[in-house]
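Protocol step 4 of 6: structure prediction from sequence.
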Amino acid sequence: MEHRLIMGAANQYRTWRIPATGVADDGRERWPDNDRRRLAWAIDESIRKWDTKIHHPFHLHQADRWYKTLPPAEMLPRNEALGGYIFVCNNETMQEDLRRQLFGLPQKYKDSVRAITPGLPLFLYNYTAHQLHGVYQAISFGGSNIDPTAWEDKKCRGESRFPAQVRIRIKKKCKPLEEDAFRPILYHYDGPKFRLQLSVPEALALLDLFEVEEA
């Protein structure tokens, strides 16, 4: 299983990343040239890093910058690249997530979410229904208050309750996964809590699981 994930990672990574360059770019035709270059560089650099890691599985490439707003248990190890991300919702906020095509998390996740680049596989965990929904794809860089009117704080007008945000699209609408199916893939800490950042093998395993459920 691990060998298949490593060998398939490069092709799947390109499948997810490269089309997203066009998606993000087409939606932002008025982007300044330096932002366009930043987007293109991020995609190329991500693919280059994973080409290196796939061909040299034990090579520890230079780690991406990880921010210190989360405890270590909630962050990927420094020698692992971000392969995907799980956002969290309930029955009430899920509809707004999908209507706005925007995912968000509380303030403490803002620096973690900034590691998201266009094309990254995303998933949505509904903790009310205990189901994982997918498959989604980032079409923007992760940022802070991309839309401050989303999930507006009733006590502080103009401020979002979930300012760590990223714009998304539905990559493939799949049947949601039940907890007993997807939890064994995830890294757990502090009892039932699981890490929202996904390594590449974790993200690919979830993608495989959604494919199996659809078959």
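Step 5 (inspection) to follow. Helices lie at 2-26, 33-55, 91-100, 110-113, 179-182, 200-214.
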